[in-house]
TrEMBL record:
Protein known as: Glucose-induced degradation protein 8 isoform X1
The CTLH domain, residue ranges: 53-110
Source organism: Tripterygium wilfordii
Entries under PROSITE patterns matching the protein: CTLH, LISH
Pfam families: CTLH (PF10607)
PANTHER family: RAN BINDING PROTEIN 9-RELATED (PTHR12864)
Signal peptide residue numbers: none
Amino acid sequence: MDFDPRYYDHVAVNDNDIHNLVLSYLVHNCYKETVESFITCTGMKQTDDHLDDMEKRKRIFHFASEGNVLRALELTEELAPDLLEKNQDLHFDLLSLRFVELVSSRKCTEALEFAQTKLTPFGKVQKYVEKLEDFMALLAYEDPEKSPMFHLLSLEYRLRVADNLNRAILAHANKPSCTAMERLIQQITVVRQCLSQEHGKVTFSINFFCCCSEYIVYSCLIFASTSRRGKNGKESHYVFVFNFGHWRFIVSV
């Protein structure tokens, strides 16, 4: 099934809808400076408490993803009291990151003591038992990075936990835990699946949608340039370039 642009070129798209779509993504991911520039350019309104909230969530995300979990826990308790008490899965994941920090630093005795005081109580719940066994197994290896559980030490794992924490904080504040853009792509995917089931193979795809929509997204490509940690010990630096319609955003994190 081919989709001829003539079928939808006449459909008007409200600029405010596009602005809200982009703003939702930027706010969710705590790109505060970019949000401020975008608001200035578009004339949109954004309350100061939203900007303050973004700055706090950004700090929490970076602390969690960069290995300072204790600070992330402290700030989370300040911003979203009782969140971790109610969300035991997230609390376990954050505490496990702290355990991983200690193991990675070869502080095995301290890691064991931390596990006994903070993680052992989770062992009373069956769903945490296997996870606890995986984490504790790291102590058995002289080089845990080469163990079968090496993924628990990865940046990818820390980023996933940090992202879940960010989403949980938003939900705790009665805000959407995912961006409007995520929802849009999810809905497009479901529509495509339904069309495929009813009409057979459908050529419509996410890439097709992104390329053919005049206003919503010309491209949703992310180009990341990463400078590795240098000899001077400076942190890695990431630059992301986003193209949305006639807007271009350069985000540094």
